Give the backbone structure.
Amino acid sequence: MADYATKLAEGFSQKVVQLYFNRSISDDITNKNYEGEIKDKLSKLNIITFAALGIKVYNGSDITADTPQESVGALTTDQMKAFYFTIPSISRFKSWIKNPESSLMADAANTLKQTVDAFNLSFYADVAAGQRIGTDFSTGTCTVVTGTGVVTHSGTGFTAAMVGRSFKAAGHTAWYRIKAYNSTSEIVIEDDLDDVASAYTGGAISGGTAFVIQAVSAVQVTMDTLYEKLVAAKTLLDAAQVPEDGRYVVLPAELANLFLTSKYLIPAVGVAYEEVIRKGIIGTVAGFMVYRSEQVTGATATGWHCIAGHKSFITHAFGLNEVGTEDAIGNFGKKFKSLHVYGSKVVDERRKCGVELFIKL
């Protein structure tokens, strides 16, 4: 009986996972190309990416061969979520599995979908410095110290909420990431890197220099200006030479539904109706497949941190790790348990494949 109960538990879990993949947007908006297998909790998987190869001018003479530069990022399945509930009887459990309309399986799949989608959509914070759209802060001037990356404001205005935002002063040729907040007049910036040691490698910026910190607060949009923001996101991805196929944007319903009666929307033709409904696909706008999801980070009052990007931006791994049943001690029936493990990573080379839209109505 124990083996039979375990087989039923495995069947139940597999159906829940199948429903999860049918409904979750994470499967659509992430990259699953990595080396290794999810064998247990905290599995480490390698993400391999290559820098772009150069093209040579050939004039009949010998040419020098390039050495492809390989970078490796480690993805750890450090997220672990479990289901654990009492099964009143084996026959009742079997009927739940056989019933394609089982509300228990659907509820479990929806809970899993909401949890994993919210996790992946929180990676808006990992977009490349310089690829944030919102209301910028540029009041006053600054000084930047070589080596330490200490930025001193001509007055005040820095806040702790600026940590992680993108910074650039006049004279900088690259964007930098705000590493730390010291006071209203002092912050610290660094290169936008996680896979290698990161420090400020830009030069000194003298006093009285203008600067900008991107998307410090949400920018208010209408249907028309939301379209303009998507075009701005497209321009950033185009400039970074990110592939045009496989681009997406995920918006909460309050924003996504603006497009339902707009001239900008290309309906999701060619996509199965069931998939449109299950995954909240609105259609295509400005070259982005638009997904509707309430798991986007943020709120109506303060704004939402939405991701517009390419599916190579986030690498994601998901697996069903353990399934089993145990006796309900002191009672009849059994207890079901399953463990789902997953993790995601944005490697430095692929930060350019995402844009944050910090927007509100």
